[in-house]
């Protein structure tokens, strides 16, 4: 299930957007400004952000710039009452992926969210790189220098999930739900078994390692050069 972060300081609109997104099969989380959005991203895996522009403390422009400046390419759909071309231009220059002007047609909102998620998957699910190591989604392979390793499907998907968001902590349950499915009867310790196999395979890889966050789960980090 995709998780959508809604950054909107108008409580009624925030609740409306979250309710509509939830009704359409998304897991929606609401926050009131850009600072709360960044804090939520520290603790939650978010697939897409719907953000108002005019918010207290940190507005939508500053939120998107902060994300892009740190290399975070999470899709962002900006929502605003401003409808001038210049305001729209500012949004796209800041790094937004799409733009809607209030009043919002919630059915159109859902369509745009679906489109942005599809686009993000097409771009990101083909290949990822960290340092000199490349992860090829289509072939479940990991290439480092002249060495290519083809992984079993679950191992690759697990590793790809971690690598796609470096330094982000995933709980065991998040990994279970995303890789094995929410309906799976597989025990959570299966994640530990697969993580151990991946560590054995890539123990000598110079670019990344998988770190255990005690009591929470795992994250992939780039090795120091």
Question: Topology of this structure?
Answer:
Blueprint: E1 3-7, H1 11-23, E2 27-31, H2 34-43, E3 48-52, H3 60-69, E4 76-80, H4 85-94, E5 98-101, H5 106-124, E6 127-130, E7 133-136, E8 141-144, E9 147-150, H6 153-164, E10 170-171, H7 172-180, H8 189-201, E11 208-213, E12 217-222
Parallel strand pairs: 1-2, 1-3, 3-4, 4-5
Antiparallel strand pairs: 6-7, 7-8, 8-9, 10-12, 11-12
Polypeptide structure, described:
By secondary structure, the protein is α/β, with parallel strands linked by helices. It is built from 8 helices and 12 strands. It has a 5-stranded parallel β-sheet, with helices on both faces. It has a 4-stranded antiparallel β-sheet with strand order 6-7-8-9, with helices on one face. It has a 3-stranded antiparallel β-sheet with strand order 10-12-11. α1 (11-23) links the parallel β1 and β2 (27-31). α2 runs parallel beside α3 (60-69) and α6 (153-164) packs across α8. The chain is elongated and about 55 Å long. The model has no long low-confidence stretch (mean pLDDT 88).
């Amino acid at each position: 299930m995709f998780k959508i972060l809604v950054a909107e300081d108008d409580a009624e609109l925030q609740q409306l957007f979250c309710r509509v997104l939830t009704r359409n099969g998304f897991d929606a989380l609401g926050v009131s400004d850009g600072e709360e959005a960044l804090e939520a991203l520290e603790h939650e895996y978010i697939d897409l952000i719907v953000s108002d522009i005019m918010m207290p403390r940190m507005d939508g422009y500053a939120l998107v710039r902060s994300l892009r400046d740190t290399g975070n390419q999470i899709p962002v759909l900006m929502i605003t009452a401003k409808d001038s071309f210049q305001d729209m231009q500012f949004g796209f220059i800041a790094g937004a992926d799409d733009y809607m002007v209030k009043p919002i047609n919630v059915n159109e909102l859902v369509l745009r969210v679906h489109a942005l998620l599809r686009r993000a998957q097409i771009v990101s699910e083909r290949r990822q790189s960290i340092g000199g190591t490349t992860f090829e989604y289509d072939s479940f392979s990991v290439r480092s220098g002249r060495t290519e390793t083809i992984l079993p499907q679950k191992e690759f998907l697990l590793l790809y999930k971690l690598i796609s968001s470096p330094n982000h902590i995933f709980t065991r349950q998040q990994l279970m739900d995303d890789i094995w499915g929410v309906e799976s009867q597989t025990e959570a310790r299966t994640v530990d078994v697969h993580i151990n196999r991946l560590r054995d395979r890539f123990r000598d890889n110079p670019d990344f390692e998988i770190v255990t966050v005690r009591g929470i789960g795992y994250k992939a980090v780039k090795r120091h050069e």
